[in-house]
Design brief:
The protein has about 130 residues and is mostly beta strands. The protein contains one helix and eleven strands, in the order βββββββββαββ. The chain is globular, with a radius of gyration of 14 Å. The model has no long low-confidence stretch (mean pLDDT about 90).
């Protein structure tokens, strides 16, 4: 997978959620949350934010739990339209974010965090990840 998030500053401890044994997950993968307490790799717009994978999870390794960060400063990749410092961001695809410019994104807990700097189309930038 490409565009994994890079931890810059830890502001909260990771928590453990469920994940599929058969699934491989790269360190820094932006995750989506499903029920019950389960995370999978992000893949599309309009997914509920489920944290950022703390470490690699090898496929079929017998593990059914993944540690994820819900807080911290991370370098994340823009999905292609760019964003400005101070804007709230949401999952826009596999390991990418975009401006959470609609009320639905914020109301559905799709918000990943707040941009700490501007990013052009496809660029990376520092993002304060957390429930903003």
């Amino acid at each position: 997978m490409a565009n994994e998030a890079t931890l810059v500053q830890e502001t909260g401890l990771p928590i453990t959620l469920l994940c599929a044994n058969a699934t491989g997950i790269e360190k820094g993968t932006v995750m989506q949350l499903t029920s019950p307490r389960t995370v999978t790799a992000s893949s599309a717009d309009n997914q509920t934010f489920g944290g950022i994978a703390k470490q690699e999870k090898v496929a079929s390794d017998g593990q059914t739990e993944c540690a994820v960060y819900f807080e911290g400063v991370f370098i994340l990749t823009d999905s292609g339209a760019g964003f400005s410092a101070g804007e709230f961001l949401k999952i826009a695809g596999a390991n990418t974010v975009a401006t959470a410019d609609d009320a639905g994104a914020q109301g559905a807990n799709e918000t990943v965090g707040m941009a700490l700097e501007d990013a052009g189309a496809g660029e990376t930038a520092h993002v304060l990840v957390g429930r903003c």
